[in-house]
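To illustrate the input format used throughout this study, we show a single complete record. The first block contains the structure-token representation of the backbone; no residue identities are included at this stage. The design step must infer an amino acid for every position from geometry alone.
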């Protein structure tokens, strides 16, 4: 017999009754019922119930061992009997009567329980992540991630994509976040950068003649954590294709996402095909460029209705309305709670009216609306008895942010929200440029994107009117990926960067490799990079991305288990030609 096991803890069935077996695993739980000891033994594959009877060596050994001790047991498979079957376990028809026990790894007192999902705080869980990963939910999430990545590889290869690796040590990149840098020992005063994405390299692969590339790529960005963003590192399905337009990129990715979410989504419906929504339309209708389409409500721009209005709260401001049907049975509390929610987002309040049976409006601001206002709102918003309308007024971006969130919350509360569904969409036609806080023109998305209209658009149009061949894929309000048709012509690239304030010499220096490659015959190409962590987060129905990563950093970009980041001793700093200058305490 094998040194440690003849079977796994998820393998035994009724057909094994009478068989002598050897199992190894962790002591998951223990129950003493009428002097008979029952042990749940757990390994990667499942749980098998052990039984030890008083007066036996096995009973004495198992009775004193702490939970999570690793043991090997020898015993015989016996039937539990019909009345004792556990239907929740695949092994629930049998148990193993233990004859011999060997301790393989003793366990110290546990900092938290493993066999229940108690409310231990995240910092403690990350400090003892090796224990946290033993919990059923976490173990299931990591195995889901493994299966999803394996499926991605299989499906991409089946569609003619070739997996290739790109460098980890590289040069800095203008991806929009801060780089993690690595000092060079052999080149004093110089630094490598960990890739924020394999952007330039995958484009160079296309220029090198490889037609369809993909990679499960590690990416590194020195940015703050969010629920859907892990600080430090993340993984993406990096994709690039030659001789393609926008729709050519959409087709394989849409097929991939549909198949992945149907296969691993637990029966939740995947809506297909994915609608294409222009960026500006998304901002107007949903208040966001990553709309949650499960919310079956839309915002309506009614700024023109109140131009020149005497109602000071709306006059001269951008005004957005959210009509919500079938709220006739909602109490005043419904309106008050939505108002409180808007205030929590930074609003000063949330104006609203309700449509009565005779078509008139009632509510806090109804008295400020003229007959013409009421008539125009009724027509524009298709109002009927039982409807309510919520209003937001202010600057465009501020109103979009607040009313976009109110849209989703109102849909949830009023029953206009789809459950158990994955609603995808493509956001397209992003502005190529935007103004930063200082009023300077800067790239709004990916600087390597091809502008719609090419060089002529860059030379003749207002930069803020130029659209890029840029796109995002969004699911249930979560941005899964950004992508673009790339700028592959040197003069267009130089002009695009010039508009953003980069002179020719700077661009030639920073992107010498790219520009040199473009000048030797570059094909039209484009790509995308869906985030693996976010995909698994949605499939696992987890609210936080760290629940789908085996060993994530905490919100402060620290590894509490391994103690990273660490300080270097003077000898190592000297070898790297570095001097540390710590900030002075305030």
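Output of the design step:
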């Amino acid at each position: 017999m094998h040194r440690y096991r003849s079977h796994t803890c998820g393998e035994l069935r009724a057909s094994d009754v009478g068989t002598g077996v050897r199992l190894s695993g962790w002591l998951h739980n223990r129950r003493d019922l009428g002097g008979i000891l029952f042990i749940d033994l757990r390994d990667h594959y499942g749980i098998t119930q052990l039984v030890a009877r008083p007066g036996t060596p096995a009973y004495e050994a198992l009775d004193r061992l702490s939970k999570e001790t690793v043991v090997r047991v020898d015993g015989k498979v016996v039937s539990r009997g019909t009345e004792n079957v556990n239907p929740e376990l695949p092994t629930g028809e049998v148990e193993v009567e233990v004859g011999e026990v060997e301790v393989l790894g003793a366990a110290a007192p546990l900092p938290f329980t493993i066999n229940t999902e108690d409310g231990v705080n995240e910092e403690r869980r990350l400090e003892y992540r090796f224990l946290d990963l033993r919990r059923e939910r976490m173990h299931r999430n990591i195995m889901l991630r493994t299966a999803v990545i394996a499926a991605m590889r299989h499906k991409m290869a089946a569609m003619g994509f070739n997996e290739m690796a790109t460098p980890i040590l590289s040069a800095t990149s203008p991806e929009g976040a801060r780089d993690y840098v690595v000092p060079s020992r052999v080149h004093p005063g110089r630094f490598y950068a960990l890739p924020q994405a394999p952007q330039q390299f995958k484009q160079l692969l296309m220029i090198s003649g490889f037609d369809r590339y993909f990679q499960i790529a590690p990416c590194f960005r020195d940015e703050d954590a969010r629920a859907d963003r892990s600080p430090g590192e993340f993984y993406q399905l990096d994709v690039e294709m030659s001789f393609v337009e926008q729709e050519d990129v959409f087709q394989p990715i849409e097929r991939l996402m549909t198949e992945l979410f149907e296969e691993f989504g637990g029966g939740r419906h995947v809506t297909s095909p994915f609608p294409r929504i222009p960026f500006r339309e998304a901002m107007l209708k949903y208040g966001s460029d990553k709309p949650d389409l499960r919310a079956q409500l839309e915002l309506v721009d009614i700024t023109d209705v109140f131009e020149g209005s005497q109602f000071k709260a709306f006059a001269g401001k951008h005004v957005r309305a959210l009509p919500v049907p079938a709220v006739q049975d909602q109490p005043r509390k419904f309106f008050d709670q939505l108002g409180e929610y808007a205030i929590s987002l930074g609003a000063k309040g949330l104006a609203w009216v309700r449509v009565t049976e005779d078509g008139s409006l009632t509510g806090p601001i109804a008295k400020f609306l003229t007959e013409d206002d009421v008539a125009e709102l009724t027509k524009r918003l298709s109002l009927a008895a039982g409807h309510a309308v919520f209003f937001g007024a202010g600057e465009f971006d501020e109103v979009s942010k607040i009313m976009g969130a109110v849209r989703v919350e109102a849909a949830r509360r009023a029953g206009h929200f789809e459950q158990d569904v994955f609603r995808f969409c493509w956001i397209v036609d992003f502005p190529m440029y935007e103004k930063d806080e200082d009023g300077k023109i800067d790239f709004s998305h990916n600087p390597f994107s091809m502008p719609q209209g090419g060089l002529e658009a860059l030379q003749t149009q207002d930069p803020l009117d130029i659209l890029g061949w840029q796109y995002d894929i969004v699911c249930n309000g979560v941005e899964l990926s950004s992508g673009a048709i790339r700028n592959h012509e040197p003069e267009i690239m130089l002009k695009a960067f010039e508009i953003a304030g980069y002179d020719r010499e700077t661009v030639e220096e920073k992107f010498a490799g790219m520009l040199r490659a473009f000048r030797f015959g570059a094909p039209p190409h484009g790509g995308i990079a869906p985030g693996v962590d976010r995909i698994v987060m949605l499939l696992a129905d987890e609210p936080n991305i760290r629940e789908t990563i085996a060993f994530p950093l905490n919100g402060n970009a620290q590894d509490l288990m391994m103690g990273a980041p660490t300080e270097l001793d003077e000898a190592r700093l000297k070898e790297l030609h570095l001097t540390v200058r710590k900030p002075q305490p305030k």
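Structural context for interpreting the output: The chain has 16 helices and 24 strands. The first helix runs from residue 57 to 64.
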